[in-house]
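Posting here for the record, re: zinc ion.
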Amino acid sequence: MKYLKKYKIPFSGLTAGKHNFEFEIDDKFFDCFEHSLVKKGNLLAKVSLQKQENMLVVNFDINGYIQLSCDVCLSDFNSSTHFQERIIVKFVNEEWDEETEEVIVLSKTDYELDIATLLYEYINVQVPIYAKCSEQGSGIGCDPEMLSHISIEESTSTEEERIDPRWDALKNIKNN
Ligand SMILES: [Zn+2]
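Prediction output follows.
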């Protein structure tokens, strides 16, 4: 997970006010998360951090593309993605676990904000339940060659189903 070390914002030395950061997110980033729905992509996260006395307000503007698999023709395609997120970081003296989706709690002794997991979650939430490459703009359609392969596979599976009763018969013989 060495790669994720760069997705940290050392805020302790910052003056009060607004500070801007940029983080590139690439395939290697997604490699660090075993269960990531997104395996490939290229995005730029522009992070604006507003430092206040007991709080950080962090705004994210994430723009780029992620690679999705089309649920119709199974081809991989790049899906343009642009969205904003915001998180508030509060500092407390003791352990306090009232974290919510919008509020992160850090100790007063913390000096940096790790945004790797946040970025990972934000991006994975963008993955649609049903992805279709033909919805990516005009002139883009499902791969006809892939589609023809799929229809062949489908007819093969129906053939297997027809053979099924025979297998059942064999199973019965074994059990006897
Ligand atoms: Zn498609």
